[in-house]
């Protein structure tokens, strides 16, 4: 039986369809999860996709982090379930306390929308095990609040323990600290990144199919769990 991977929809989510398609391309079965429903429907992993949940009111991801479904995601992540947060999903995972630090307004206050080369700094997480360490992948970035910030202690801990998973290879276009594009939880099961791998699964519609590696990685992670 193929793994079942949940994709959450909040009011204002944009990229749930593309995330579900990426899951399908990888050979797994996407399962729709709804923000107001705490039931994770027995999925093997969860993706928190990008967009403008609750209109980005208060702060990006702040309201979504308190949705009923997120209580279940936090509990499941505590039990080792792989969770991937993409863009607004990354913001939600930080707001929910599953990942440290925060995403602040981009340097120069501009929304950045362009393809970016990312370097895979850690290929031992649940979402990056199919990549070579140091591989560079081309993935779209489209966000207004993508500048990763954290306390000096948190940054040192992330760097020292290899929890910086993706870095902007040519320097952060949004002022992100240390050119950080994505990070992982201590056990490597929860990963968040600002760029959008789900928009890079087919060269016909995206800049590459490099993003597929994240979704394929989850297959190994749930099988070996
Ligand atoms: N593409 C997205 O998920 C956008 C995330 C968020 N709303 C921002 O602009 O930063």
From TrEMBL:
<dbReference type="Pfam" id="PF13507">
    <property type="entry name" value="GATase_5"/>
</dbReference>
<keyword id="KW-0378">Hydrolase</keyword>
<keyword id="KW-0547">Nucleotide-binding</keyword>
<feature type="active site">
    <location>
        <position position="196"/>
    </location>
</feature>
<keyword id="KW-0436">Ligase</keyword>
<dbReference type="InterPro" id="IPR010075">
    <property type="entry name" value="PRibForGlyAmidine_synth_PurQ"/>
</dbReference>
<comment type="subunit">
    <text>Part of the FGAM synthase complex composed of 1 PurL, 1 PurQ and 2 PurS subunits.</text>
</comment>
<keyword id="KW-0658">Purine biosynthesis</keyword>
<feature type="active site" description="Nucleophile">
    <location>
        <position position="87"/>
    </location>
</feature>
<comment type="pathway">
    <text>Purine metabolism; IMP biosynthesis via de novo pathway; 5-amino-1-(5-phospho-D-ribosyl)imidazole from N(2)-formyl-N(1)-(5-phospho-D-ribosyl)glycinamide: step 1/2.</text>
</comment>
<dbReference type="GO" id="GO:0004642">
    <property type="term" value="F:phosphoribosylformylglycinamidine synthase activity"/>
</dbReference>
<comment type="function">
    <text>Part of the phosphoribosylformylglycinamidine synthase complex involved in the purines biosynthetic pathway. Catalyzes the ATP-dependent conversion of formylglycinamide ribonucleotide (FGAR) and glutamine to yield formylglycinamidine ribonucleotide (FGAM) and glutamate. The FGAM synthase complex is composed of three subunits. PurQ produces an ammonia molecule by converting glutamine to glutamate. PurL transfers the ammonia molecule to FGAR to form FGAM in an ATP-dependent manner.</text>
</comment>
<keyword id="KW-0067">ATP-binding</keyword>
<dbReference type="GO" id="GO:0006189">
    <property type="term" value="P:'de novo' IMP biosynthetic process"/>
</dbReference>
<dbReference type="GO" id="GO:0005524">
    <property type="term" value="F:ATP binding"/>
</dbReference>
<dbReference type="InterPro" id="IPR029062">
    <property type="entry name" value="Class_I_gatase-like"/>
</dbReference>
<keyword id="KW-0315">Glutamine amidotransferase</keyword>
<dbReference type="GO" id="GO:0004359">
    <property type="term" value="F:glutaminase activity"/>
</dbReference>
<keyword id="KW-0963">Cytoplasm</keyword>
<feature type="active site">
    <location>
        <position position="198"/>
    </location>
</feature>
<protein>
    <recommendedName>
        <fullName>Phosphoribosylformylglycinamidine synthase subunit PurQ</fullName>
        <ecNumber>6.3.5.3</ecNumber>
        <ecNumber>3.5.1.2</ecNumber>
    </recommendedName>
</protein>
<dbReference type="GO" id="GO:0005737">
    <property type="term" value="C:cytoplasm"/>
</dbReference>
């Amino acid at each position: 039986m193929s793994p079942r991977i949940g994709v959450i929809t909040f009011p204002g989510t944009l990229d749930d369809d593309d995330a579900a398609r990426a899951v399908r391309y990888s050979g797994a079965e996407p399962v729709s999860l709804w923000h107001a429903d705490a039931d994770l429907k027995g999925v093997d992993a969860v993706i928190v996709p990008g967009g403008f949940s609750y209109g980005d009111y208060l702060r990006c991801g702040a309201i979504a982090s308190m949705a009923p479904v997120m209580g279940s995601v936090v509990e499941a992540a505590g039990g080792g379930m792989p969770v991937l947060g993409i863009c607004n999903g990354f913001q939600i995972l930080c707001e929910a306390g599953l990942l440290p630090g925060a995403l602040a307004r981009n340097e120069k206050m501009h929304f950045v929308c362009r393809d970016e080369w990312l370097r895979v700094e850690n290929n031992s997480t649940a979402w990056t095990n199919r990549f070579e360490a140091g591989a560079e992948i081309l993935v779209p970035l489209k966000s207004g609040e993508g500048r990763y910030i954290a306390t000096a202690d948190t940054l040192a801990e992330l760097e020292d323990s290899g929890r910086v998973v993706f870095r902007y290879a040519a320097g952060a276009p949004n002022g992100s600290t240390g050119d950080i594009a994505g990070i992982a939880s201590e056990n490597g099961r929860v990963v968040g990144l600002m760029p959008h791998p789900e928009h890079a699964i087919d060269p016909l519609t995206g800049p590459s199919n490099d993003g597929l590696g994240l979704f394929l990685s989850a297959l190994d992670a749930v099988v070996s769990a």
